[in-house]
Amino acid sequence: FHALLEDTQDGRSRISQRVNKNSQQVDLLMEDKMTLQETVWTVEEEAYAARVAWNHSIGLSQVTYQELQTHRDHVYVHETHIQTHQTQLQLQSTLIQTQHQVSQTRF
Fold it and tell me: Which domain of life is it from (predicted)?
């Protein structure tokens, strides 16, 4: 009878140890699950922030490109004006020289 009682107590002790071990494993799995959820949330937040930053960067790039294109257009217009003025100055210089030559040949 003592042997049967000891076997029963040993069995209960092993079952109790397994239950404790399983309970610890469940606790660890629950902690892992919570950590995973926090990690997923953090990654999603960072991904959202990266998308916002990317969109902002694209917007700034487009604005910068438009400003650069406007500046190029203004430079082109100014260069055209300068060329026009240079041509006018050359024509005026030629006209003055011609008038000077004509006036010298008269006298």
Answer: Eukaryota
Pinpoint the alpha helices (H) of the chain: 2-106
* Tokens of residue 4, six digits: 């049967």
Q: Is residue 17 part of a domain?
A: yes
Q: What is the pLDDT along the chain (107 residues), one digit of tens a residue?
A: 777 677 778 888 888 888 889 999 999 999 999 999 999 999 999 999 999 999 999 998 999 999 999 999 999 999 999 999 999 999 999 999 999 999 888 76
Pull the structure tokens for residue 28. Answer: 């660890």
Number of domains in the chain: 1
Q: What's the pTM?
A: 0.49
Neighbour count for residue 70 (Cβ, 10 Å): 10
